Task: inverse folding
């Protein structure tokens, strides 16, 4: 029997390995060692979890899938939970969760235990696992509902402003991107998620697009006035007209130059 531990956190900002020592201690207290750890940062509401399915692919009949809590394994809707359970059953892997005491029997010696008792323990364990999976999903939905209600109320009161932006972090990300560092390298150096770096990058692209659109608008208006000046008694473009065009051109040049510097040698 091999014990394979699964560690999961919902986002890259969270530490998926937080419970690693607790799992090690849990197994050790029962005379076992963990053979391998499978760690990933992905929502428990998603069935597509590469590390979880790699764990199952690596497992053999009689192996144990060890988790801190059932919610680490599933916050899935009922249909997806049924698919995951079927995969676990096909591999004949036993789920042991620290928060499900009936599952701990899988780590105890079974010599002398008759088939009826083993079957009863497995049946009870499976039923409770189902219940906790449903509870985990309901907890997720309740939190999402309360969050949405809170945001809606805050918007109605004019108090909701969204998540505050860390301007210092964004500035440092911009500097490192401009230095030619990859998105993953920047995330590692600043201990933030690649998603955060990508958002800064996307904001820079948006700023460039907006500057480009503004320049095109001013250039179109200037060209229109130049065309008008060619008509008899047509008005000549004023100095202010040229200044608006020149300012827009300068802003576009700066945005494009920054973007070009950050793009040079950039990688994911």
Result:
């Amino acid at each position: 029997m091999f014990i394979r531990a699964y560690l999961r956190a919902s986002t890259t900002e969270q530490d998926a390995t937080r419970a690693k020592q607790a799992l090690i201690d849990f197994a050790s207290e029962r005379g076992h060692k963990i053979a391998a750890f499978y760690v990933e940062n992905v929502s428990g509401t998603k069935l597509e979890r590469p590390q979880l399915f790699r764990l199952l692919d690596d497992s053999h009949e009689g192996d144990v899938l060890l988790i801190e809590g059932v919610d680490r394994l599933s916050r899935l809707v009922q249909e997806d939970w049924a698919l995951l359970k079927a995969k676990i059953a096909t591999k004949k892997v036993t789920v042991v969760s620290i928060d499900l005491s009936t599952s701990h029997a899988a780590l105890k010696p079974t010599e002398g235990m008759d088939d009826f008792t083993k079957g009863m323990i497995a049946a009870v364990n499976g039923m409770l696992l189902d219940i906790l999976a449903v509870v985990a999903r309901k907890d997720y939905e309740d939190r999402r509902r309360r969050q949405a209600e809170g945001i809606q109320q805050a918007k109605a009161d004019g108090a909701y402003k969204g998540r505050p932006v860390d301007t210092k972090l964004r500035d440092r990300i911009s500097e490192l991107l401009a230095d030619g560092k990859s998105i993953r390298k920047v995330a590692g150096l600043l201990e933030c998620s690649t998603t955060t770096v990508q958002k800064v990058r996307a904001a820079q692209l948006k700023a460039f697009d907006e500057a480009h659109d503004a320049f095109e608008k001013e250039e179109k208006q200037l060209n229109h006035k130049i065309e008008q000046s060619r008509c008899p008694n047509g008005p000549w473009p004023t100095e202010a007209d040229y200044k608006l065009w020149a300012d827009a051109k300068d802003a576009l040049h700066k945005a494009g130059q920054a973007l070009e510097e950050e793009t040079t040698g950039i990688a994911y």
In short: Residues 115-157 form the longest helix (43 residues). The chain has two domains: 3-139, 167-263.
